[in-house]
UniProtKB/TrEMBL annotation:
<dbReference type="InterPro" id="IPR036388">
    <property type="entry name" value="WH-like_DNA-bd_sf"/>
</dbReference>
<dbReference type="Pfam" id="PF12840">
    <property type="entry name" value="HTH_20"/>
</dbReference>
<dbReference type="GO" id="GO:0003700">
    <property type="term" value="F:DNA-binding transcription factor activity"/>
</dbReference>
<dbReference type="InterPro" id="IPR036390">
    <property type="entry name" value="WH_DNA-bd_sf"/>
</dbReference>
<dbReference type="InterPro" id="IPR001845">
    <property type="entry name" value="HTH_ArsR_DNA-bd_dom"/>
</dbReference>
<dbReference type="InterPro" id="IPR011991">
    <property type="entry name" value="ArsR-like_HTH"/>
</dbReference>
<protein>
    <submittedName>
        <fullName>Winged helix-turn-helix transcriptional regulator</fullName>
    </submittedName>
</protein>
<feature type="domain" description="HTH arsR-type">
    <location>
        <begin position="224"/>
        <end position="302"/>
    </location>
</feature>
Length: 306
């Protein structure tokens, strides 16, 4: 669904511009694909409410399994969610103009979803899967090195871990209580700038977030070299923390011969940019790098120094 949203906008020209142009060039030669995208886009607005049944739980079993899950959605739930879509302020004219959109047949809808997948995703699937896999690997590394707190705080800049709350940049003001349930983190190549979640709080909690690759492409605009991107002192601080996994502010200051106040300031800037996370270990506060920092270091040729 994130790809369908991105198709309808021109957001992220650096990340999605080439993809958008290629899809647009193919559509005049594929009338059925163009029709499928129009139909699906009507039920997937770029903002506001999107029916949850269109995004079934991720099983890792492929497209067919996901479409089977959509087709198996209870009719009562489909009617309720589509009625909510029709009543929302972001509902498309096509949906509002339908005589009875709540009577939508799920068979034809999943056919539309399959064709849209072939148009928007299939030609790029290897690339998308690789980016998602890299993100999972980076976040797994963060979890192993820094624990759950580091993993959650590593979602910066679009989310911040403020125990016991995860504060997320979200278009609407809402509070979701886990109440003992786990939170499933789902990296998405086509999620843009801020995470999204299921609308129904009764469903298993899921947070869909942009993969690290998108953030790294944003950071690499302009100058390529890391010292020009961040500044010499800030780069030295980032590399020092990355090379030693976890460092206190005093250790960074001593290693780089910086004033303690300077080291503290630079660490604060890097933390605000989502490149460093901090967590308390007894009497000390230790700093470690985030998945975004790992990707940045790899993308600028300094991966061997980490």
């Amino acid at each position: 669904m994130c790809a369908t949203c991105r198709w309808q906008t021109r957001q992220g020209p650096l990340e999605f511009g080439h993809w958008h142009r290629e899809v647009r060039q193919r559509l005049p030669r594929d009338v059925r694909a163009a029709h499928a995208l129009r139909v699906l886009s009507a039920y997937v607005p770029t903002s506001g409410y999107i029916p949850d049944f269109l995004t079934p739980p991720v099983t890792g079993e492929g497209l067919d399994s996901s479409l089977d899950a959509v087709r198996a959605t209870p009719r009562e739930r489909v009617r309720g969610e589509l009625a909510r879509l029709v009543g929302s302020r972001t509902a498309s004219a096509e949906v509002r103009g339908t005589t009875d959109p709540t009577g939508l047949s799920l068979g034809p809808l999943t056919d539309v979803m399959r064709r849209s997948f072939r148009t928007l995703l299939e030609p790029y699937w290897d690339h998308v899967r690789a980016a998602v896999s890299d993100d999972v690997s980076l976040r797994t590394r963060t979890l192993l090195e820094g624990g759950t707190g580091a993993l959650l705080d590593g979602l910066r800049p679009f989310a911040r871990w403020k125990p016991p709350y995860l504060e997320v940049d979200y278009p609407a003001d809402r509070e979701l209580r886990l109440e003992g349930r786990g939170l499933v983190l789902v990296p998405s190549y086509f999620c843009w700038r801020r995470p999204t979640a299921l609308a129904d709080p009764g469903l298993d909690p899921v947070l869909v977030y942009p993969v690290v690759k998108q953030q790294i492409e944003i950071l690499r605009t302009g100058e390529e070299r890391l010292d020009r991107l961040l500044g010499r002192t800030r780069t030295a601080v980032l590399l020092d923390v990355a090379n030693r996994r976890a460092r206190t502010t005093t250790e960074v200051a001593d290693a780089l011969r910086l004033a303690l106040a300077t080291a503290s300031y630079q660490i604060g800037v890097l933390r605000g940019a989502g490149l460093i996370v901090s967590h308390r270990d007894g009497k000390h506060v230790e700093h470690s790098v985030t998945p975004l920092a790992h990707a940045l270091l790899a993308g600028t040729g300094t991966a061997g120094r980490v």
